[in-house]
Design brief:
Elements lengths: L10 H10 L47
Amino acid sequence: MRIIAFVTETATPTRILEHVGTPTTGPVLSAAPGPPAWEETIDQTPVFGPLAAAPEPVFEFDQTVTW
């Protein structure tokens, strides 16, 4: 898709929408819903301890750049 025009004034689009019979304002925004209520507790223990080393990667990844 390509932008071919950009409307900076609201008078003309408002007149067009009123003539066609469509609303000139956007829908009313409602509040976002809250977090879900969990019935069971979630285990939040860390997978790795603070002194544990991260596991070694399974693959070898070379980040060198050759031009």
